[in-house]
């Protein structure tokens, strides 16, 4: 006799157990078919032809009732799984009167699903044997479980590839997870840790070091600290550790995550860098002190040279006799003044590097200072046939709180630099204004040889000089612009330089607005 739901293998016969099951399943079948809404119920005869199914089965499989009646139940199943499934169901019903398990099915739209199913044999009102299957769709549950497994696997892979030691403990400080880094640190497999307490694995002394931080994390706070550990091979290493609390859906702390990263090499590099920095600063201070002392020592004999050459040139003690000597004296005087200018710049740079520049808080009349600066540079400009233009509205310039000597030095450096690098018939323009946001602005623009954009940083660096596209006839140490920039920054201001080869250069100095002694009229 055949069991139903699927055609059984030849020679299969129902047992007395099946007959008993048939008798007991009839009331269950009637009740489920009439009232059940969550379970898809399928009734099929001995040749697996569907005789009836309920509305829940329509929703589950996607077929209206009239589309499946008279068709084989195998239309819902996966062909590759059909032979084994058929044999298992027939054997179970012959043995126990029922079969239960999971079935992979195919919906009308071609999508796949999984059901948790029970198949019973029964005898209908006409005495014919048939089967009834009760099916609960668990597709979404399986997908959720799959996503959970995939998430767990992804989490494990990520954790294992973290360059450090990662672990997860519950509120009782029992291990829930460790990554490969922890396994390698202790020389134990992952299974060794799970369920053990933190103190049991780390040892009492090591646990006492981390316990206060773990307690803070279990209190809901994120904690970061550093500690030193010894690996199984005896190597002492430094670690930076982060403890993060784990919250449940209602905001309760249920555990914490701990990540320790080896920072040994970083700390060693940091120590080496600090040592190198200290050494460089010490060498820089020594250099600055040497330059300052040397500059002072050079200025004494140089002042004598300049003074005596000026006396000879002026014939202060009587006629020289030979006019050539007077010409040579003028050369000595000019060279000495140039050398003194270089030494003064060098001394100023040394003071700035040594941090010994102290600014005076003078009240500076900016318009007067600019006018005097132009007067000082005009003789040199006239000698080089360079025109100087001044664009200043004196009535709109307030008084400035600044070091008058240093501000004048800034203006003279910019003006002399502009004149030096501007060919004959060129123009140097001096502008100045005050703005409540930008502050005091002094701008020097020239029509000189210009600087390539990539060379501007070099022009602002100490002891550098940009090669001229004309020829190298411009003397200097390269300290003018860097010194000026440093003096501006000492006042809390900024220096901007824009230039173009063959067009000229514009240098803009901005001093803070709060240095104004009164608002602009």
How does the SSE layout of this entry go?
Elements: H1 16-35, E1 40-45, E2 50-53, H2 55-61, H3 65-68, H4 82-96, E3 98-106, E4 112-123, E5 129-137, H5 139-161, E6 165-170, E7 175-178, H6 180-186, H7 190-193, H8 198-202, H9 204-218, E8 223-230, E9 236-247, E10 253-262, H10 264-314, H11 323-354, E11 362-364, H12 366-383, E12 387-392, E13 400-402, H13 404-420, E14 427-435, E15 439-446, H14 456-459, H15 480-490, E16 494-500, E17 504-511
Parallel strand pairs: 12-14
Antiparallel strand pairs: 1-2, 1-5, 3-4, 4-5, 6-7, 6-10, 8-9, 9-10, 11-13, 14-15, 15-17, 16-17
Characterise the protein shown here.
The protein is α+β, with helices and mostly antiparallel strands and 521 residues long. The chain folds into 4 domains: 16-137, PAS domain (Beta-Lactamase), CATH 3.30.450; 155-262, Beta-Lactamase, CATH 3.30.450; 267-354, Helix Hairpins (Orthogonal Bundle); 362-515, 2-Layer Sandwich (Heat Shock Protein 90). 45% of the residues lie in helices and 24% in strands. It has helices at residues 16-35, 55-61, 65-68, 82-96, 139-161, 180-186, 190-193, 198-202, 204-218, 264-314, 323-354, 366-383, 404-420, 456-459, 480-490; strands at residues 40-45, 50-53, 98-106, 112-123, 129-137, 165-170, 175-178, 223-230, 236-247, 253-262, 362-364, 387-392, 400-402, 427-435, 439-446, 494-500, 504-511. Strands 2-1-5-4-3 form a 5-stranded antiparallel beta sheet, sandwiched between helices. Strands 7-6-10-9-8 form a 5-stranded antiparallel beta sheet, sandwiched between helices. Strands 12-14-15-17-16 form a 5-stranded mixed beta sheet, covered by helices on one side. A hairpin with a 5-residue loop joins strand 4 (112-123) and strand 5 (129-137). Helix 10 (264-314) runs antiparallel to helix 11 and helix 11 (323-354) packs across helix 15. 26% of the residues are buried. Mean pLDDT is 80; it is low at 6-25 and 468-472.
